[in-house]
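ok trying again, last paste got cut off:
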Amino acid sequence: MNYNSQNKRDLYLSIVIPVFNEEESVRELYSQITLVCEREKYSYEIIFVDDGSTDSTFDVLNVLFQQDPRVKVIQFRKNSGKSDALSAGFEVSSGDYVVTMDGDLQDDPNEIPALLKEIEKGYDLVSGWKASRKDPLSKKIPSKVWNFGTSMLTGLKLHDFNCGLKIYRSEVVKNLKIYGELYRYIPALANWQGFRVGELKVNHRSRKYGKSKFGASRFLKGFLDLITVMFLSKYTTRPLHLFGSVGFLFSIAGGGITIYLIAIRVLKKSYLSNRPLLYLGILFLIIGVQFISIGLLGEMITRSQSDRNTFSIRKTLGV
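nice, full thing came through this time. structure:
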């Protein structure tokens, strides 16, 4: 569907917003979104995913749902994380384009028209870039380091992988499978699947209410999930290629050491019991066999696995 050639009234947007304890923000965010969409004459739906809030966030969302049929709400029984919240929203979205944004008012809904224009340049996903980020240095500096490292390791040259403000074509969100902390790497995962990924500078606002829900542990989790992304991008359907290759190298090294020691024993009649190299050769052989075995087990798991949601839904409104 071509944005430039169609009437804006025919454009259908799904706006997916994960929220967790944002009772002060959701009504104001809803008002800002509706103002933009009405001004631009978009047809749209707003999907709030309440990720197990313990305040009155769901009560506020329930009021919004009663007032506006375009509001849809999914409530989790417990906090499951942003990846699960996005997955739930993606699953029920029905728009030609899907916009995601955070529920803390730092993402600006006024950027939606610019994102739509950018994606119609031929991109499948356009990620926001908080070029002027309104966060403390304790968040900005680690984020710059992390984004640089992620860009280098994934081969996707973006300045801001984890910006909550993004726009997708519907086929992208229907093909994405995210869990854990993988929401940070959505552009890399989409790029790996062959989708064209772009980036656009967007306005970033200071937090108006409350405080960030993410602690220092996010850096360790993010690093571990980066390893996951690197594995998924190359070996998700062929784990034996990774583990088997490592196992083969260890086996070759262990076999070479063993042959060398056998030759010494046979030709020089030298005893091997006092040679540490013997134990190293045996260790390499054992490690090699273990890695190959892990690869084979991974192949069997890959063949038999089924996709399952990890979140539990308590209630839905309008879905």
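cool. The chain has a mean pLDDT of 83. The chain has two domains: 10-236, 239-302.
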